[in-house]
Amino acid sequence: MPLRVAVVGSGPAGIYTAEALTKQAGEPVEIDVLDRLPTPYGLVRYGVAPDHTSIKSIAGYLRRVLELPSVRFLGGVELGRDVSAADLAACYDAVVYCTGAMVDRRLGIPGEDLPGSVAATDFVNWYCGHPDVPPETFSLDSTDVAVIGVGNVAVDVVRVLARSADELRATDVPQEVLDRLAKSQVRTLHMIGRRGPEHAKFTLKELRELGDLSNCDVSVRHDEAGDGDVSALSRQVRGNVEVLRSWCGRTPAGRPRRLDVRFWLRPVEILGTIRVEGLKLERTALVDGRVTGTGEFEVVPAGMVLRSVGYQSVPLPGVPFDGTTMTVPNVAGRVGEGQYVAGWLKRGPSGVIGTNKSDAAETVRTLLADLAVRGERAAPPSRLDDVLAARRVHPVTYEQWLSIEAAEAALAVALGRGEHVKLTGRSAMLAAFGRAGLPGPAL
Ligand code: NAP
């Protein structure tokens, strides 16, 4: 009797988990990878910036895992709506939850919910064509945009806003989104860090890319970049500081857009009455290592404020959750009897995509060691296919996903753009394999 495991979430953490299971099990395995969306790859499809094609090519690696005979993809199956944690426990020897970090962290300042104050998660989902954020969500009609945070997500959203639509034509950005980017009124981008250049979270490669944009001048202020000795800093941090300092002396080349990278400023209020009009900032200093306001304020005019201060996970029904760390409490991936966790849901939103590979391998080692201790296994009492059929839930199969992908390739040809152009909306995806009209819940 093969070992039966469900993996909830088909992003990198989920698929690396499936791969680790096939490699480490030492016995036949059957792995079902479930996703609430009709499409696999999670953040690789809906998080990695469209112009970062080399990172997106990780999908090619993940695809090979989904194509293993021991692995099955079941799209459009949502935990809490179509299946419960108890259903999964009855159908599998073990369940590994890998649903990542789907929402933004809150700033907790006045004005955060004004129209025009946007979570970076939503904005990223928008330009990546996520079915939950339709193309009409954003119209980029402000000349000034403030981006709070100096991590790699902030760099991504700044870069996408700074590029011309022509530069993004060959990417898989949905056509309706590209049309909106082409009409963008954005002229000035302000990217704001609450600490100094040496504390910024972005990586050197990503930072350098901002300085090489052909459509955007970049600037940093001397007094915010600092001029202290950098020799004791790590290579990565020193590199960031040196690049930022080199931008201080740059003469603007008259490019259509401008990026002003700011430091030592924390957001205290998003200003506006019916929609965002500006961002009030307070100058900061580090006192005993803590970010502390100095009582000196300034206002950056902005019709849109993008809050890019980190992602966080959401609780899953039937799975323990720590509301302080915003992760699932675990020991080396073990949550409880038959329940495991991997990826951002396990350790928080940190690291690069590849970090999830070793993270998933650790969880799988724990899982297999637990099963070895448990000894002889009884067959799980239920089968997921029967549970779903009884509820008239029709999962999207891997082959059907391939039809979605083929439709995206055909759209790119029809539009004379790149290799793929994303379909937006679940109905367009389902139409790609003739699903429209079948009974069952809307995906
Ligand atoms: P992040 O790296 O944690 O950066 C969050 C930023 O928000 C930091 O600058 C942080 O400043 C700031 N921040 C947090 N709370 C704040 C507050 N209350 N007020 C003002 N600023 C605040 O998060 P991320 O950018 O969302 O990235 C998540 C993960 O994805 C990271 O591991 C990242 O490297 C990865 N990623 C990688 C790529 C890539 O490789 N190209 C692309 C995108 C994302 P403090 O440091 O002061 O807290």
3D structure, described in words:
By secondary structure, the chain is α/β, with parallel strands linked by helices. The protein folds into two domains: about 5-100 and about 315-395, 3-Layer(aba) Sandwich (Rossmann fold); about 105-310, FAD/NAD(P)-binding domain (3-Layer(bba) Sandwich), CATH 3.50.50. Helix content is about 35%, strand content about 20%. The protein has 17 helices and 17 strands. The protein has helices spanning about 10-25, 40-45, 55, 60-65, 85-90, 120-125, 150-160, 165-170, 175-180, 205-210, 220-225, 235-250, 345, 355-375, 385-390, 400-415, 425-430, and strands spanning about 5-10, 30-35, 70-75, 95, 105, 115-120, 145-150, 190, 215-220, 255-260, 265-270, 280-285, 290-300, 305, 310, 335, 340. Strands 3-2-1-4-17-16 form a six-stranded mixed beta sheet, with helices on both faces. Bound molecules: NADP nicotinamide-adenine-dinucleotide phosphate (NAP). NADP nicotinamide-adenine-dinucleotide phosphate (NAP) binds near residues 148 and 352. It comes from Sphaerisporangium rubeum. Belongs to the ferredoxin--NADP reductase type 1 family. InterPro entries: FAD/NAD-bd_sf, FAD/NAD-binding_dom, Ferredox_Rdtase, Ferredox_Rdtase_adrenod. Its EC number is 1.18.1.2.
